[in-house]
Amino acid sequence: MKILCKFTKLGYLKFISHLDLVDLFQRTLFQNKVDVKFSEGFNPHPRMSIAYPLPLGIESNSEYMEIYLNSKIDLNDFIIRMNEKLPHGIKIVEAKYDDDESISNKVKSVVYAFKLLNTFFEKNKNVDIVSELSKINDMDEVEIERKRKKGKRRIFVKENAKDFLTRLELKDDAIYAYIKMSEEGSLKPALIFDILNKYTDITMDELDIDLERIGLYQDYEGENEIFL
Questions:
Q1: Using CA atoms, how far apart are residues 138 and 167, in angstroms rounded to an integer?
Q2: Which of 114, 117, 187, 224 could be a cystine partner for 218, CB 3.0 to 4.6 Å?
Q3: Rounded Cα gap, residues 166 and 25, in angstroms
Q4: What stretches of 122-171 adopt beta strand conformation (E)?
Q5: Shortest CA distance to 107 belongs to which of 181, 41, 19, 161?
Q6: For the chain, what is the radius of gyration of the CA atoms?
Q7: Rounded to whole angstroms, how far apart are CA atoms 104 and 117?
């Protein structure tokens, strides 16, 4: 049986690596004597996974983890005991039994919020942010360049970002980016950053924003959250 957990990754722990985060959860599961199922073979390890790991430096209130168990447990008690031992910033907020397909197969889109700081507004006090975002939304093609694997080599290729970028919108003093995820790929937040600087009159650098991943979604519009 499998449980699906929703957890936060906030504060200084946004700089913890994916491998260290997995190790943290494994140690906390063992400390709480959770009956986790192990893989088979010569090097058995706990059967758990975190869906679409965050890039370093990005906060999130909606991260997802799947854990396979040998026996059923009380989920409310599980959440309390885990959170007592997890560091501040990492917190399990919900958990449920979920025997559907892997979460990685469900995710169709991701939403990032570029939270705008005072320095951003000082630089862009004469810029109509909504109008500038509309420029991108109305474009059929937004050219980007990124590395792709070709055989054993990695080469730079030009692609249309609008194949992945559904829309940009301003709300609550943040620019929200709605991004499709597919077998062909997705867009990293850094590319959204580059697009805004290249194709609009918006002036922005990394010190002008705080970046947060809002959630993972089961549809391309970023409306049907995974944890429902």
A1: 9
A2: 224
A3: 33
A4: 143-150, 153-160, 165-171
A5: 181
A6: 20
A7: 33
| Strand duo 209-217 + 59-68: pairing | parallel
Q: In terms of Cα–Cα distance, which of 7, 27, 24, 4 is closest to 16?
A: 24
Per-residue pLDDT of 66-106, as tens digits, reads 999 999 999 999 999 999 999 999 999 999 998 777 777 88
pLDDT tens, position by position, 17-73? 999 999 999 999 999 999 999 888 788 888 999 988 888 889 999 999 999 999 999
Cross-strand partners of 109: 180, 217
Query: 13, 86, 22, 15: which is closest to 50 by C-alpha?
Result: 22
Question: Can you tell me the distance from the alpha carbon of 140 to that of 133, in angstroms, rounded to the nearest whole number?
Answer: 14
**Cβ atoms of 115 and 209 closer than 8 Å:** yes
Joined together, the tokens standing for residue 112 give 């990032």
What sign does the CA torsion over 3, 8, 13, 14 have? positive
Burial of residue 177 (number of CB atoms within 10 Å: 0-12, 13-18, 19+): buried
Chain length of the chain:
228
Q: How many C-beta atoms surround the C-beta of residue 171 within 10 A?
A: 9
User: Of 120, 133, 112, whose CA–CA distance to 190 is shortest?
Assistant: 112
User: The tokens of 65 are what?
Assistant: 């983890």
The H or E element spanning position 193 is helix 189-199
Cα distances from 117 to residues 51, 175, 199, 204, in angstroms, run 29, 11, 21, 10
